[in-house]
C-alpha cells in the first residue's frame, strides 16, 4: 500500500524488553488456539447436522479470525508510522483510539463506520456467549432448569454483578489472568480430545502434539511470571514445563489408548438427530 511501511518484524519492540517465550503464546489466542472458543464449541455443534461439517465451521472460523488479526496487526505496524506513535495513540485513547483512527483514516466516514461496528460487535458477541455459557454451567451445577425467566435471572444477575466489578479492575491485570486461564482451558480441552481419539483408536497426534506444546507454554509461564506465578528463572521454568508436559502425555496415552470401542452406526449418525436424555 502506497505511503505505508511495516515496521521491522524481527525486532522485539516491547519497551520493557520482555521475552517472547512463552508470553507470545499466552497473549495471542484468537485465530490460533483459545480455551474460550473451546467452551463455545458445544453451542455451535448443536447447530450442525453432521460431524463432518465441523471442518468447515471450526477450521474456517479459525482461518477467518486469523486473517482479521493479521489485518489489524499490519495496520498497527504501518498506519501510525512508528511504534512510538502507536504507543502514543494507545496512551491517549486506548485500543479504541487506534481502531477509530485507522478505520476512518483509511476508509472515510462510511467505511470507517462499518469497520468500527464490526470491531464493536465482536466483543459484544463474545461477552454474550461468555455470560450465557457461564449461566448454563451454573444452572447445570445447581440443577436449575432455565426455561423460566425467573430462573434465568437468578443465574444471570450475579454474573452481571461480577462482570460490572471486573470493569473497575485495571485491564492489563485482567488480561494477564485471562490469558493464562484461557490457554489453560485450551490445554484441558486438547488433552480431553486426545483421550477421546486414543480411546477410539483414531489419529490422536493432531491434538496430542499441540497439547504437549501448550502445556509447556502455560506451565513455563506460571512458573516464570513473577506477578501471577512463582518468579522462577526462565531456563528452569522451561525445563520443568517440558518435563511436565511429556509426563502428562505419557500418562494420557497409557490410560486412554485402546480403552474404548466405536459404534460405526453411531459415528455416522447426524448430530442433530442424536438422541439425548
Automatic annotation (TrEMBL):
Keywords assigned: Cell membrane, Membrane, Transmembrane, Transmembrane helix
Membrane listed as a keyword: yes
A cellular-component GO term for this protein: plasma membrane
UniProt membrane topology term: Multi-pass membrane protein
Annotated family: Belongs to the peptide transporter carbon starvation (CstA) (TC 2.A.114) family.
Pfam families, per database record: CstA (PF02554)
Compartments where located: Cell membrane
Highest taxon in the source lineage: Bacteria
Gene Ontology terms: biological process: cellular response to starvation
Residue ranges occupied by any CstA N-terminal domain in the UniProt entry: 19-77, 109-219
TM helices/strands, residue ranges: 20-36, 56-80, 100-125, 153-174, 180-198, 205-223, 235-253
Protein name (Swiss-Prot/TrEMBL): Carbon starvation protein A
Keyword Cell membrane: yes
Amino acid at each position: 500500500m502506497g505511503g505505508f511501511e511495516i515496521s521491522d518484524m524481527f525486532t522485539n519492540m516491547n519497551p520493557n524488553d520482555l521475552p517472547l517465550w512463552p508470553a507470545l503464546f499466552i497473549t495471542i489466542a484468537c485465530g490460533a488456539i483459545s480455551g474460550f472458543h473451546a467452551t463455545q464449541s458445544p453451542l455451535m455443534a448443536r447447530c450442525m447436522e453432521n460431524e463432518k461439517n465441523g471442518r468447515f465451521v471450526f477450521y474456517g472460523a479459525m482461518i477467518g479470525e486469523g486473517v482479521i488479526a493479521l489485518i489489524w496487526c499490519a495496520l498497527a505496524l504501518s498506519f501510525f508510522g512508528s511504534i512510538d506513535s502507536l504507543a502514543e495513540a494507545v496512551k491517549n485513547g486506548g485500543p479504541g483510539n487506534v481502531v477509530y483512527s485507522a478505520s476512518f483514516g483509511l476508509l472515510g466516514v462510511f467505511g470507517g463506520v462499518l469497520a468500527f461496528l464490526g470491531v464493536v460487535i465482536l466483543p459484544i458477541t463474545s461477552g454474550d456467549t461468555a455470560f450465557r455459557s457461564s449461566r448454563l454451567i451454573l444452572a447445570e451445577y445447581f440443577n436449575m432448569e432455565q426455561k423460566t425467566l425467573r430462573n434465568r435471572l437468578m443465574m444471570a444477575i450475579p454474573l452481571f454483578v461480577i462482570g460490572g466489578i471486573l470493569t473497575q479492575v485495571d485491564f492489563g491485570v485482567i488480561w494477564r489472568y485471562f490469558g493464562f486461564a484461557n490457554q489453560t482451558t485450551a490445554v484441558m480441552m486438547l488433552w480431553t480430545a486426545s483421550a477421546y481419539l486414543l480411546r477410539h483408536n483414531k489419529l490422536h497426534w493432531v491434538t496430542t502434539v499441540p497439547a504437549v506444546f501448550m502445556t509447556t507454554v502455560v506451565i513455563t509461564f506460571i512458573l516464570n511470571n513473577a506477578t501471577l506465578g512463582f518468579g522462577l528463572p526462565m531456563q528452569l521454568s522451561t525445563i520443568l514445563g517440558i518435563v511436565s508436559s511429556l509426563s502428562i502425555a505419557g500418562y494420557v496415552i497409557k490410560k486412554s489408548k485402546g480403552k474404548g470401542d466405536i459404534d460405526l452406526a453411531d459415528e455416522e449418525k447426524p448430530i442433530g438427530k442424536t438422541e439425548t436424555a
